[in-house]
Amino acid sequence: MAGSITIALAGNPNSGKTTLFNALTGARHSVGNWPGVTVEKKEGKLKYRDNEIIVVDLPGTYSLSPYSIEEIIARNYIVEDLPDVVVNIVDASNIERNLYLSMQLIELGKPVVIALNMMDIAEKRGIKIDCKKLSEQLGVPVVPIVATKEEGVDDLLNIVVNLVKGGIPYNPKQIDFGKEIEGKIEKTIEKLKDMSGLEKYNLRWLALKVLEEDEAVLKLLGMNLKTKTEDEIAVTNEISLEDDFEALIADKRYSYIAEIVSKTVKKPKNKELTMSDRVDKILTNRWLGLPIFALIMYGVFYFTFDLVGNKLLDMIDVFFAETLSGWVTGLLESVGAAEWLKSLIVDGIIGGVGGVLVFLPNIVCLFLAISILEDSGYMARVAFIMDRAMRKIGLSGKAFIPMILGFGCNVPAIMGTRTLEDENDRLTAILINPFISCSARLPVYTLFAAAFFPGKENKVVFSLYILGILIAIIVGLIFKKTLFKSDITPFVMELPPYRIPTLKDTLLHVWERVKGFLIKAGTLIFGASIVLWFILGYNFSGPVELTESFGAAIGRLFAPIFAPLGFGNWQATLSLITGVLAKEVVVSNMSIIYGLAEEPSAVAFAQALGQSFTQLTAYAFMVFVLLYTPCIATVGIIKRETNSWKWTGFSVAYQFAVAWFVSMIVFQVGRLLGF
């Protein structure tokens, strides 16, 4: 093998980095038609011309003076980890804005190749780019590509390998910032030359960052300055703080970019409204935006339940209720299996795991609908639509983007809060995000809605999702008025063009999410089902009746807590306790408790649950599941993202309290109204 080459993929949010990453490596990471999909760096490998190429997909960033966590991740990797080449993905349809990051990457002194992506969209808009001339103006290779169709990817790899091997010239052009600033740059460079530990950095770039008062660079230099004299420290501070060089330098960059674009890019003179602009006049309308969003979300749940989901659910019902359980029971009896083993497999595993998998069709339908909305570009508009509502609680619409991710799973949603620059905003978003109903809660809703609200499942589940959003907003308002007072961060967001989702990308998104659900069913839920089978069938005396088991004793111990909520029975209590592991375990637990292993179907569930719940208590129970302590994985990610046991413990405790209070209000008010 000729050698190893490390490529860093850098670019603005929504420029197509992850799409190119997947095209290069054959990976299947989620891509989306909205900013902020990548919040951690991802790594993949490929072989090309006897070279092992390591590709690192970095979070999107608009500049190398980072303000949010994911931007810091991107900058630190390029500056500190020293990749062999940086491939800068540039959106050809928004080239002028994208080139600002390009200029900063070139200033770093690292080898840069520009991948001019979305050339097909640029051509449709009548934008013509002279790639050869653009390359000459910048002094770096420029390769036109269409990452979604994998066009130009091989040419890009060829250029990258040749550049690293020295097969093509690399002479990046340097911006002339003018006599005054260039003089300051030279003066700063002379000071930097006397410092130790800066060998791997480009001194001109460091000088620019000092003049821009980049906090990370000033901190780096401050560590080295400790060994210098007070006079030298004063001189460096004088250089960096004398004028507003950040604005002056940025202005020079934009002027330079505008000059290059004028020479290399031709745009149509009569700019007409694009299709996206015309659609946005309706979908993002001040008065129509929110009602349309609510209508679309209602349509999602109509599709998930009435139109498709429940019809497929009936087919899965037949498989588990009439085929699998009977076949396995017969097989075990034919080989003379012990009663405890038969009970473990049929009652515990099939009853627990099968009780969750019955609802797979609804989950697939929900993921499919959300993936289509994401890929079409609509979900990016939702953040814009919600900006006015979010500002009333002291947050910007940008904080709503992680909340949208929460419809799939709260774990990546909480990680998505890294896009928020203000630490108070970020902590608020982390603490309210678990109120957004994730897909793991859907089996619980589906179970209870089918049992107690037949024919109205979509309306009931829709009401829960809306309630979750409202509670998140109300709690966020309380937090911003008390714990996390700060100014509202301005919200500026580029709206991506509407696109028709490709079948490949949509199915990939659905599969990635469904795969996670199936893995959870085969691991966590499988293990939990075995434990539940044991604690529901045994006590210290050995095998016992269900009501005398460990599980029943645990449930009875805590049941009084839930009596004011209307479901103070041990079955519901134990299900909620085990649901902290994963919300699907609530369904597994009830399947085993109500003896549904022989027929783990929605119909059997409905009949069994009628013994312990009414319509009112069933709805109160669903409200509690919506709002109470998130699953163990979410608790773990809250600890990681806050780096604080205090906030993690606070999150668990206050969410339980909110769930208890709201569920109690639902039950008590409902009872007063005669429900």
UniProtKB/TrEMBL annotation:
The protein's location, in the record's own words, is:
Cell inner membrane; Cell membrane
Q: Specify which residues bind Mg(2+) 2 according to the UniProt entry for this protein.
A: A23, T25, G26
Q: What Pfam family is a match for this entry? A: FeoB_C
Indicate the segments forming the FeoB-type G domain, all copies: 4-166
CDD domains, A to Z: FeoB (cd01879)
TM region(s), chain numbering = 287-305, 349-373, 393-415, 460-479, 517-538, 550-567, 616-638, 650-670
Residues that bind Mg(2+) 1, according to the entry? N22
An annotated GO cellular component: plasma membrane
List the keywords (alphabetical): Cell inner membrane, Cell membrane, GTP-binding, Ion transport, Iron, Iron transport, Magnesium, Membrane, Metal-binding, Nucleotide-binding, Transmembrane, Transmembrane helix, Transport
List, alphabetically, the InterPro entries matched.
Fe2_transport_prot-B (IPR003373), Fe2_transport_prot_B_C (IPR011640), FeoB_Cyto (IPR041069), FeoB_GTPase (IPR050860), G_FEOB_dom (IPR030389), Gate_dom (IPR011642), GTP-bd (IPR006073), P-loop_NTPase (IPR027417)
The entry's GTP-binding residues are 11-18, 36-40, 57-60, 117-120, 146-148
Give the main location.
Answer: membrane
One of the record's GO molecular function terms: GTP binding
Q: How does it sit in the membrane?
A: Multi-pass membrane protein
Entry function: Probable transporter of a GTP-driven Fe(2+) uptake system.
Q: Which PANTHER family match?
A: FE(2+) TRANSPORTER FEOB, FERROUS IRON TRANSPORT PROTEIN B
User: Which NCBIfam families does the UniProt record give?
Assistant: feoB, small_GTP
Family indicated by similarity:
Belongs to the TRAFAC class TrmE-Era-EngA-EngB-Septin-like GTPase superfamily. FeoB GTPase (TC 9.A.8) family.
What is the official name of this protein in its record?
Ferrous iron transport protein B
